[in-house]
Amino acid sequence: METFLEIRNPATGELAGRVECATHLQIADSVARARRAQKKWRARSFDERGAIIRRFHDLILDRQVQVLDTIQQETGKTRRDALAELVTVAGTARYYLKHGARHLAVSKRRGAVPAITSAEVVYKPYGVAGLITPWNYPFLLGIADALPALLAGNAVVIKPSELTPLSAVLAESLLVESGLDPDLAIVVNGRGDAGAELIKYVDYVGFTGGIETGRKVAVAASERLIPYSLELGGKNPMIVLEGAPIEQAAIGLIAGAFSNSGQTCISIERVFVQQSIFEEFARAVTEKTAKLKIGFSPSWDLDVGSLISRAHADKTFWHIERAVTNGAKLLAGGKRRLDLGETFIQPTVLSGVNDSMAVFSEETFGPVVALYPVQTAEEAIERANDSVYGLNASVWTGEGKRAREIARRLETGSTGINSTLLIYHSFDVPMGGVKQSGIGRRHGAQGILRYTQAQSIVSSIAAGGGYDALALNITNEKTARAVIQAMKLWRRIPGL
Ligand code: NDP
């Protein structure tokens, strides 16, 4: 087994850093330490836990240069894409600091019968949450989901992608600098087997990554009967209909398809455009795509960065090549930029894609988007829903009510109107996938309650042995009938 992972910047090939691989014994020990620390942590108030997360929020903004440099060095992405990670982690912290206590508060509920009984729900942390995270947003996905878990009173053990562990390691050290007990947030490094090992010990698994690994995670978690969430991929559609502001929709698509070099689970890969505006829309998108600046640098003037690896660039390029060979038309891009390096691919717009091409239905996870003409809104909805995925979608119609009606008919966990990636910053609403895009939700109330078990506490007056003893008083037909009569009346009493 390897002792170290060497991390190289995929854009330049330069060494970005090294991390030590955790042995299976160290993984078990990390969870055991986290479990011991969590016993004290869960007893602390939300405000005490929040004070540390608040310092962390401020610290990552103060250390933005270090954070952005680290993200860029291990991913080869642009400065702007790295900033998106920082903004989202800060936003997640800010949201749960402001609203987490409300979501976790003991909530009073209706008792079995009014007056003599009452009920309440208490949310208790699971214990140790294991987070297994991918390479596309190593700082964001490495730490953002840990924040609500910690605020809810859990400890976390994080297994980042073997390609990009440095951002998670940095986040771990900044949490400790913010005052967190080092045993409450532990990063364990290694390849996939380290993730598999982690699942053997934790009390909850939060996984983000591909479908195949997601399925293995679900099986492993199910064998232990522990809860899990899966945030998997998407083949996210955008619908553009007559009446839509074409220029704006084209700009929206550029952001939605090409930021982070298209390596975003919610990014747009399929666009259904009404025939009457297809040409105008395609021209606008093509012109804007051709102007995008591609490369790697710590400055802010680049639009599209490197892909994560040579292997991933090969796969992405194969999607383009195979489509073009089989008759798809290249509207923009379509070339590798070997002058920049093996991991750079021009942002690419295709039309004439059909179901014989991988890019039609498989997630590309790169800077490639296909435009499809449709006759009607109905056809757009039907084709958008024709996918095994159901993560995110985007609707542009120029008219809010119609867009919302279409949005509700899309089989996705989220849909943006006049937007593509907005869901990720909409912290008050749940985010996640339907169909093979995942199970469970992050953000909103569900994004923190998922790290807790609901305990219901029900109570009764003690008189006569309490509520449960009431039935003992039904000893003859007359009393039984009176009970039935009372039930008939009960349904008719307003408010009860
Ligand atoms: P994976 O799903 O393979 O990996 C995600 C994480 O799971 C990594 O930390 C990985 O570790 C770990 N892992 C791998 N095998 C196991 C296992 N058996 N048990 C537990 N954990 C495991 O994603 P990849 O990074 O390989 O990307 C593959 C594809 O997934 C992409 O091309 C893309 O289509 C999709 N993807 C989707 C993302 C999303 O945000 N929805 C994000 C990233 C990828 P290690 O890296 O060390 O193998």
What does this structure look like?
This protein has 496 residues and is an alpha/beta fold. It folds into 3 domains: 4-232 and 444-453, 3-Layer(aba) Sandwich (Aldehyde Dehydrogenase, Chain A, domain 1), CATH 3.40.605.10; 236-427, Aldehyde Dehydrogenase, Chain A, domain 2 (3-Layer(aba) Sandwich), CATH 3.40.309.10; 469-496, no CATH class. 41% of the residues lie in helices and 19% in strands. The chain has helices at 24-41, 46-62, 64-75, 79-104, 140-143, 146-151, 166-177, 192-199, 211-223, 246-258, 275-290, 310-325, 358-361, 377-385, 400-409, 444-449, 477-490; strands spanning 4-8, 15-20, 107-109, 117-125, 128-132, 155-159, 185-187, 204-208, 228-231, 236-240, 268-274, 329-332, 348-351, 368-374, 392-396, 414-417, 438-439, 452-460. α10 links the parallel β10 (236-240) and β11 (268-274). The chain is globular and about 90 Å long. Bound molecules: NADPH dihydro-nicotinamide-adenine-dinucleotide phosphate. The site of NADPH dihydro-nicotinamide-adenine-dinucleotide phosphate has 25 residues, from α8 and α9.
